[in-house]
Design brief:
The complex is a heterodimer of chains A (356) and B (822). Chain A has 356 residues and is of the alpha+beta class. Chain A folds into two domains: 97 residues; 236 residues, BirA Bifunctional Protein, domain 2 (2-Layer Sandwich). In chain A, the strands form two sheets. In chain A, strands 1-4-5-9-8-7-6 form a seven-stranded mixed β-sheet, sandwiched between helices. In chain A, strand 6 and strand 7 form a beta hairpin. The N terminus of chain A is likely disordered. Classes of the chains: A alpha+beta (356), B alpha+beta (822).
Chain lengths: 356, 822
């Protein structure tokens, strides 16, 4: 049988040529069995091996494997080429020159669209604050540790950082880059710009998306939206803060809703306060939502800590500031009585089309 | 923090109801998150002795138990297994009503009558333990038939769940909360009973103390207690601990815990016999050292962690032979623990650097009651007062207890405490409310601030107020205290005003217009995840992903590089629900890794903001997927032009793209290009069927049009050229309308041709493509483009000759681009 070996090699050459001549994936699928499968010359040769002496069988078997391998490799390569060609042909058949689109030939479907609930709520809030004399500022979602924490009076390992469950981003040294945990770093950017440009005072609100590393539930999402306000000017006091919160509350929630402040703690404000508004469910009568207190907590606020002003180069002897912040999602939840915030990210058309 | 009302009443007289006190505490910033009533409903429960335990035939979970409670044997059916004959257990007899209103009645189970119930800790409302009965063998005075409330010293009590803010380490104990109440309610604060060291043996003759890391350990005191008998705590101690949510263990440990809860000073008792040289030292851990903590874990010390600026520093307590006994201020080691055989106690009461404790606690994942207090800051002057209280408590259950005189007291380095000045005008200047100097003095003095002089005052905060800083910051801290005790509700309110007007920026207005336009065109706005899986990120080639180092799950581990995938997925989900005939859009942020970003952000970072870090580029996109049946790239193109039409741009051309961006159908893509600047403002086409297929897990179910607008480009007037501001008044004279069809080479863009035609003469009012034709007489490599051209003059009606001239000029314009009249 030793003279079989050149035969097998020639057979493989011949089959490889046949493979390379195949013109389509269909043809390739059809030919597969007769090239390497049950109906191929290799299958026949395989059966013939049984009659050989063990040594001989081993050698002939290896030669057979090698020859079949060559054909199989050629098939795979050809399959790739043909598939690419067919994809290319299909895409070419699909080709459209969009520069030639005739506007009048297409009627845009007439339908009722719906804006997103969070975007709409954010807009309502922005509108209230713009009417109160605020501008609207925005900032990035990925921040350095400096902007998210340290410039806000929280040096590394500061226990107050435990108030935020932080996602760290894999850039630079460990824990130097974060997904912002609050919109407050935008305050720092804003004050830095205002100091550099000499455009103090500032009165701005800063809406945006933030992140917390906490398992989502009906009231909390990993990504959420906050709006934060900052006023830095000469002669600003806590009374201005309380008055601003009160005006906003009445303007946004309605004249029946009032606000109150109680002491709180944030590393970037001093004095700090939590602000609460009349429970909108029971109008202050006391119910389960407000734990019978008639009040629900909306956000935090306070006088900008002198250390924060100093960190951005603002003279804290001359300027005072106040800041406040709260959840946009929470406002939407209260106003539209949404039982489970997670519905907001599921994007079910039946949910979205209820928004006006 | 759980705080018992009875405990508070030890310190200050509080006749108010729990609800009234809740209001006062809330207003002090000590927010009450819950009120729990304990020790009620136990009046009828008595101590019973188990006489006999027998199986009930056919029952494998309950047994027949005979108990004696003083009135003769009682048969009870019981499902607990943790007791033996002779044990003393609580019995709720028939007719008793347990906490939570559970009434005990006579019941028959498997033919056995149960004449009451033997109770677990949870059933009694005393603990969370429901694994077995609440065995009282070790309780002093637990005589058969005696009422459990007497044995345990239980009285009905109210427990407030108080949330103490991070800047109030002084309030994280019963005395601290009581102090705030006393000042607010203008009542005296009572001091707890304290013991004094006594006897002739000075501590130094039997024990030692040294501080080798004075920056980490600000003070180390070591006391020696002799004649200690380890026993159960008195009932009142156990009750206080339970009310605070802690489990009583033994009198020594319990006294240590009680003092921590009451005064805020953690202490650590060691078995003196098991501490080499009866000496405690505080030093830095050395690399390679290990410690097996009380929780049984071996911990590698002095190993740098991941935390920013974490050098791996650990402060440890060592014995006289320099062997590590425990992680200072966090947790002790097993080797020197108090046991039942302990007769001499070495007691550590110290104070450690808050930041060092915070870092070690975080790095070792070990947060204890002690570490939580030290990392907030413990009063450095408190140590020996806390020991005096501990001894006073321990004496009750360990008669003859001896506290050796002259306890060791080694000072480390303590940060200098500030001296501040405060004037009533400072208070008014920050609060906008005038509070008179006398009231400022009364409020601050009540909190043990030392005030000298008359307005302005020189103020020295008490040692426990580690939150009060120096300088202007410290002044703000003082003013907060004044405001807090005065009452935020009593502060003035004023609506501020300023001359500047409020406004949105140009970009914000543009974004709103786009959103409104998309909605007006029938689209629905969605919100898709910013955090996606690496697999999802790889579906569209936008370079390497920006990864989250500590994701909650692999599904949310990288920041998205495009919104196309998310919006397409949202569309497919709705399609599966039979609601796919919609257009969905999102206005969202996309992130590009700084390595491949065109404009990576460089910003301050690192410790102290001293270094520069490269951050991802954040782009803003409007991504709209047109998924209605029949929607395709053509519909998307028309829609894109309608959207852009809202932005008053000079001229945007749809130009075929040789290389479609990833995620877009490769042969059905075009760029939206600003004619004047050449900048790309967006992409239009179809979602790549390969992407839709991958999301659908097979073939793409149907075509989906795609519009993607780059808001960063649109917001930049040098890229998105604004239309001229002036608006032309239309002519009063009628327009002449002519149609022109040009055979146009494929390389010539239809809108370029239209633009050339429109620029032919100022009397060309408009040019609109209305037909595209290929084949027939039109040679290959070209198509026929038919335009409707309106001509008109502001001065008169154009006559035939003028129209004919203009027509020739238009044909010439077309010719200049290679288009010939058909």
């Amino acid at each position: 049988m030793s003279d079989d070996r050149p035969d097998l090699s020639a057979l493989a050459d011949d089959l490889v040529n046949r493979v390379n001549a195949l013109g389509s994936l269909d043809a390739l699928r059809e030919a597969e069995a007769s090239l390497v499968g049950r109906r191929s010359p290799f299958a026949e040769a395989q059966r013939a091996l049984g009659a050989l002496e063990p040594d001989e069988r081993r050698r002939a078997g290896a030669a057979l494997q090698e020859a079949r391998g060559r054909v199989e490799d050629a098939l795979e390569a050809r399959r790739g080429v043909l598939a690419a060609e067919e994809r290319h042909r299909a895409l070419e058949a699909d080709r459209l020159d969009l520069g030639d689109v005739v506007d009048a030939a297409v009627r845009l479907p007439v339908a009722v669209g719906h804006g997103g609930l969070i975007a709409a709520t954010q807009r309502e809030l922005e509108d209230v604050f713009v009417a109160m004399g605020f501008t609207v500022e925005e900032g990035p979602e990925v921040e350095s540790d400096w902007y998210n924490f340290e410039a806000l009076n929280m040096p590394p390992a500061h226990p107050a950082r435990g108030l935020w469950d932080t996602f760290y981003v894999d850039l630079g040294a460990p824990e130097t880059v974060v997904l912002r945990t609050h919109t407050s770093p935008t305050q720092i950017h804003l004050m830095e710009r205002a100091t550099a440009a000499g455009t103090l005072p500032v009165h701005s609100v800063m809406p945006g998306r933030c992140y917390r590393r906490d398992t989502p539930d009906a009231r909390h999402l990993v990504a959420f939206h906050q709006i934060e306000g900052l006023v830095v000017a000469e002669g600003i006091t806590f009374a201005d803060l309380a008055g601003t919160i009160e005006s906003f509350t009445a303007a946004y929630f309605g004249p029946a809703i009032t606000s109150r402040l109680r002491p709180g703690f944030f590393p970037f404000t001093e004095p700090s306060a939590e602000f609460e508004v009349t429970c909108t469910v029971c109008s202050g009568e006391g119910c389960r939502t407000c734990s019978m207190t008639g009040w629900v907590e909306l956000g935090g606020c306070g006088m900008v800590d002198p250390a924060v002003l100093a960190a951005v180069g603002i003279d804290p002897e001359r300027y005072h500031g106040f800041a406040f912040g709260f959840g946009i999602d929470r406002c939407a939840m209260m106003r539209y009585e949404i039982a489970d915030l997670r519905a907001l990210t599921e994007n079910d058309v039946r949910f979205v089309e209820q928004f006006s | 923090m759980r705080i018992s009302l009875a405990w508070l009443r030890d310190f200050v007289e509080l006749p108010e109801s729990p609800e009234e006190l809740r209001g006062v505490l809330d207003d002090l910033g000590l927010v009450v998150e819950g009120i729990e009533r304990v020790g009620e409903g136990l009046e009828d429960v008595v101590v019973a002795r188990v006489e006999q335990i027998a199986a009930i035939p056919g029952a494998d979970r309950i047994r027949r138990v005979v108990v004696e409670a003083g009135d003769g044997p009682l048969e009870i059916v019981c499902g607990a297994w943790n007791f033996q004959e002779g044990d003393r257990v609580p019995l709720a007899p028939v007719g008793a009503v347990l906490p939570g209103g559970f009434a005990i009645a006579r019941r028959t189970m498997r033919g056995v009558t149960s004449n009451g119930m033997l109770c677990s800790g949870r059933e009694l409302g005393l603990s969370d333990d429901h694994a077995g009965l609440f065995i009282v063998n070790d309780q002093p005075g637990a005589e058969v038939g005696r009422r459990l409330v007497e044995v345990l010293g239980l009285a009905p009590d109210v427990v407030f769940e108080v949330s103490v803010e991070g800047n109030r380490p002084d309030a994280w104990c019963v005395e601290g909360v009581a102090r705030d109440l006393a000042v607010r309610l203008s009542r005296p604060l009572r001091a707890p009973r304290l013991a004094s060291p006594h006897g002739a043996t000075p501590t130094a003759s039997v024990a030692g103390a040294r501080v080798e890391a004075p920056d980490l350990c600000g003070r180390l005191t070591v006391s020696v207690l002799r004649q200690v008998s380890v026993a159960p705590s008195p009932a009142w101690v156990a009750e206080r601990l339970r009310a605070a949510g802690m489990r009583p263990i033994s009198n020594v440990v319990d006294a240590s815990n009680l003092v921590m809860l009451e005064l805020g000073q953690p202490t650590h008792p060691y078995d003196l016999a098991r501490v080499a040289g009866a000496t405690l030292g505080a030093r830095r851990a050395r690399p390679g050292e290990t410690l097996t903590t009380l929780d049984g874990l071996e911990r590698r010390l002095a190993t740098p962690g991941r935390g920013l600026g974490d050098t791996g520093e650990d402060c440890v307590i060592v014995d006289g032979e320099d062997r590590v006994l425990g992680l200072a201020g966090i947790m002790g080691g097993a080797a020197s623990e108090i046991t039942a055989a302990t007769t001499e106690v070495l007691l550590e009461a110290a104070c450690f650097d808050p930041m060092a404790i915070a870092r070690s606690s975080k790095r070792h994942g070990l947060r204890t009651e002690a570490s939580a207090r030290f990392e907030r800051g413990v009063d450095p002057t408190l140590a020996l007062r806390a020991v005096a209280r501990l001894v006073a408590v321990l004496e009750e259950s360990s008669p003859g207890l001896e506290w050796l005189t002259e306890p060791l007291d080694v000072a480390g380095e303590l940060a200098a405490r500030p001296t501040l000045t405060l004037a009533a005008s400072d208070v008014a200047g920050l609060l906008g409310t005038a509070i008179d100097a006398g009231e400022v003095r009364r409020l601050l003095t009540g909190l043990d601030f030392d005030l000298e002089g008359e307005d302005p005052f020189v103020v020295r905060p008490p040692a426990r107020r580690l939150d009060v800083r120096a300088g202007l910051e410290g002044r703000a801290d003082l003013i907060e205290e004044v405001a807090r005790l005065h009452g935020y509700g009593r502060l003035a309110r004023r609506v501020p005003s300023w001359p500047e007007v409020g406004a949105l920026s140009d970009r914000q207005r543009m974004r709103r217009r786009l959103r409104d336009a998309a909605v007006a065109l029938g689209a629905l706005e969605v919100w898709t995840p910013t955090l996606v899986s690496t697999g999802e990120h790889a579906l569209v080639d936008v370079g390497p992903p920006v990864s989250v180092a500590n994701p909650l799950s692999a599904e949310e581990s990288v920041l998205r590089g495009t919104c196309v995938t998310g919006v397409a997925r949202a569309w497919l989900r709705n399609l599966e629900r039979g609601r796919g005939d919609v257009a969905l859009f999102e206005v969202g942020t996309v992130f590009t890794h700084p390595e491949v970003a065109a404009h990576p952000r460089r910003t301050r970072g690192g410790v102290g903001g001293a270094s520069e870090v490269a951050l991802p580029e954040e782009g803003e996109r409007l991504t709209l997927v047109l998924g209605r049946a029949g929607d395709d790239a053509v519909a998307a193109t028309v829609l894109a032009r309608a959207l852009l039409g809202r932005l008053a741009l000079a001229d945007v051309v749809v130009r075929a793209l040789a290389d479609a961006p990833s995620g877009v159908h490769p042969t059905r893509a075009a760029a939206l290009v600003d004619r004047a600047s050449g900048a790309r403002l967006g992409v239009v086409g179809e979602v790549d069927p390969a992407l839709v297929g991958a999301l659908a897990g097979g073939e793409a179910p149907r075509r989906a049009g795609l519009v993607e607008l780059d808001l960063d480009a649109l917001a930049d007037p040098t890229r998105a050229t604004p239309a001229p501001r002036a608006i032309r008044v239309p002519s009063r004279f009628p327009s002449a309308v002519i149609d022109l069809a040009f055979v146009t080479p494929d390389r010539v863009n239809a809108q370029d041709l239209a633009h050339a035609l429109a620029g032919t003469d100022e009397r060309v009012e408009s040019v609109a493509l209305f037909d595209v034709y290929r084949g027939g007489a039109v040679p290959s490599g070209a198509r026929s483009l038919a335009f409707t051209v309106r001509l008109c003059s502001p001065e008169r009606t154009l006559d035939e000759r003028e129209v004919a001239q203009l027509r020739e000029a238009l044909i010439e314009s077309g010719g200049a681009l290679g288009a010939s009249l058909r």
